[in-house]
Amino acid sequence: MIDLTINGIQMSVEKGTTILDAAALIGVKIPTLCHLQGQHPLGACRICVVEVEGAKVLMPSCATPVTMGMVVQTNSRKVREARTLVAELLLSEHEGNCQYCDRSSDCELEAITSLLGINKPLYIGEKPESRFDYTTKALIRDTGKCIKCRRCVTVCNEIQKVGALFPQNRGYETVIGPAFTLDLADVQCVQCGQCAAVCPVGAIVERSSISEIWDAIEDPTKHVVVQTAPAIRAALGECFDYEPGTLVTGKMVSALRLLGFNAVFDTNFAADLTIMEEGTELLTRLKKKLVDGEDIALPMFTSCSPGWINYAEYFQPDYLDNLSTCKSPQQMFGAVAKTYYAEKMGIDPKDIIVVSVMPCTAKKYEAAREEMADSGFTDVDYVLTTRELGGMIKSTGINFRELPDGVMDNPLGQSTGAADIFANTGGVMEAAIRTVYELVTGREIPFENLHLTPVAGLEGLKEASLKIEGTVKEWSFLEGVELSVAVAHGLGNAAEVFRRLKADPGRYHFVEVMTCPGGCIGGGGQPRFTDDSTRLKRMKAIYAEDEGKPLRKSHLNPSIAKIYEEYLIQPLGEKSHHLLHTHYTKK
């Protein structure tokens, strides 16, 4: 342990702790614009400088480890003047357009300048030319707002291992962006939005469809339905100053009705549908491999996360046959809404507009994929992020905190707890195993409270195995099989899965990959700023939602049984194969 003093408070911390983290332990928040939790410190922004007794210069707290007997001042005159100077220099090159910026009420640079008491520009002169990039369906870049903090570079290269963003040129000419100053659409960007989630200003934001959605809602000829992903209910409250992880499902439903949507449905319904299709697909592949001796692609990978699908198409094209052919729950919902729901309601599918509320910017890209129109109509018309929905609600003057708890509409609003946990890393795997194990053995999975705990939590790559014993006759070929699974979140961990598979091709039967750290609860469209403490609170809320449901296995959802009885006939049947499954393309 290292003894030190911060602002007159004596404390002891573990060796290797930075001044930034040590200060946080005693409730002292040191501002920073470049630091990312768990990543190698850059010390690039210099906003976090502190005064260390005996040091000749101010030290960056994010990159300076504590030493025995260290005496630190985090808010001395010298520190305040240095931070103010740095902030004023950043502002001198920042083309903020604050009155029109998407981040005007959520800008870290603005918050810091306010704390420092900066109320007028000190340095006025030339600013870098703004270059706008509208080439992707998910993201918009404005280089004029970029403050070169390099957070986006860190998350893209160190966490996601995608490498779409780098500093280009040097000095005043520096631009953060794709190589050779190309547009995002011209490089291997998976559109996950983690760059937009960590950007402290408005240099990278999601591409909005809010105005088009308002137009659709106000068009009397259109029947506009909205679906809400499981991760939204544990994060939307943060837009209205709730503690992270506060479940606001009922208030969210009421708010969506007040916005004017004709029906409010749950993506969880389609998550249960996904488990039926994907679970059956896994069992079918195992049967072809173990009984028929076919050279079938195993392990099978989940296909719910569009950033991960994009990553696989770019970086692992030889494994595309291993991906489940299932569409994501978002797209399955859209296909069902414009066929099954349209028929039940007697509405022409061309008049149905499907809006999704998602924690993910890549869902905007996914909805625009050409192949996502098997009903003859685009599955999903528009996608909102959690942040955008929060903004829409605020814009109408709705008092969110005072809303009563609403209930989802039927038939596409009923779901099980298994669908809720799709929001968490490991959740799709757990939901699938709950159903597959029970179908194969006729018994409930033998885990406490149904949780497959080895695949839960924030460890980047998790492995588990489950021995299949006591099978029913139809699945007797699985008797004694040790089902081996893996769960990865964050695309850097997905890369590790492939390294292990290349060394040992038979290592796994089933693999879940989520693009974003923590899974969907940490998605690129969730309220900022998301660190591990926030992720864990959201995850805890999602598990509580699951545990509070009367039904917690997808195959027990009566609405799912009904759609197969009335429309789809059976999992992997002709109609479900046409509407609910897709293909992938090498890029």
Give me a quick take on this structure:
By secondary structure, the chain is α/β, with parallel strands linked by helices. Helix content is 34%, strand content 13%.
What report would you give on this structure?
Strand 17 (482-489), helix 15 (491-503) and strand 18 (510-514) form a beta-alpha-beta unit. The strands form 5 sheets. Strands 2-1-5-3-4 form a 5-stranded mixed sheet, with helices on both faces. Strands 12-11-14-15 form a 4-stranded parallel sheet, with helices on both faces. It has a 4-stranded mixed sheet with strand order 13-18-17-16, with helices on one face. It folds into 4 domains: 2-75, Ubiquitin-like (UB roll) (Roll); 87-206, Alpha-Beta Plaits, CATH 3.30.70.20; 221-269 and 330-402, 3-Layer(aba) Sandwich (Rossmann fold); 274-327 and 416-580, Fe-only Hydrogenase (Larger Subunit), Chain L, domain 3 (3-Layer(aba) Sandwich), CATH 3.40.950. With 587 residues, the protein is of the alpha/beta class. The mean pLDDT is 95. The N and C termini lie far apart (51 Å). The chain has 18 helices and 18 strands.
